[in-house]
Amino acid sequence: xxxxxxxxxxxxxxxxxxxxxxxxLENLDYLxxxxxxxxxxxxxxxxxxxxxxxxxxxxxFNTFHIKNNNLFIINEEQVxxxxxxxxxxxxxxxxxxxxxFINNSLIPSNLLFEIVYLHxxxxxxxxxxxxxxxxYTYAHLLLSEYNQQTLSLENIKALLFxxxxxxxxxxxxxxxxxxxxxxxxxxxYKLFLDLVETNYYKDLSLEDYAKRVNISTRQLSRMIKLxxxxxxxxxxxxxxxxxxxxxLKHSDLSISEIAYEVGFLExxxxxxxxxxxxxxxxxxxxxxxxxx
Length: 292
Fold this sequence. Notes:
globular; 10 strands; Arc Repressor Mutant, subunit A; Jelly Rolls
């Protein structure tokens, strides 16, 4: 349905380092269409730091209005695009980096998880920041370092750590949420989410997931409730419904084929659940999306 782009494929050029890129938002015009205004997904994280201007960003059927002094985070594998009427006066930065770039550095993997996953689960990917935020300083330093004739990955990773740590501080200030979890909880929840992503269409029980995460069912239920304030069944259902929406909009599969594809045994039950959660039938949803 969608090609998952690497950074180099995404921007259509060979880079200094395949796992990292930073550039000014003023320079978006030279990028190929798939990297901006057509629905796409990719195998890396993408951060918009908008100093001036405005844009509308669609992420998996949710619309976000980005304005000056906003930071916007795109996770791996999310289907998204900028609206075509994006402001021509954009000023700021866009930072792209892979999970491998983080893993092969001194940046704690938990930091990225807290920023990208936990913030998106509890709130949304849009963060308001101060007009003179340190984030602009770190982004400027990152860009200056990236543009050096000889690229120092150690310096880039050190500055990226400072940038991400400042993002976390802004989240805490913006939401009054300290994200205080143990390393074991975060490690287990990361594994759980990875398992959901690859198995959501299968008929797996709480016991199955708990066994694969190597914790008890009681521990898993408590952890899901603590971090996401929901249940396993709701997480699985939401993931199935999201995939069904993607397929309804971006594929030619029949509604019955989509029902089976995302894990429903009966198309009629899929239609009932879909309407209950979205207010329209799958057929109506597809028709509405095709008009847009």
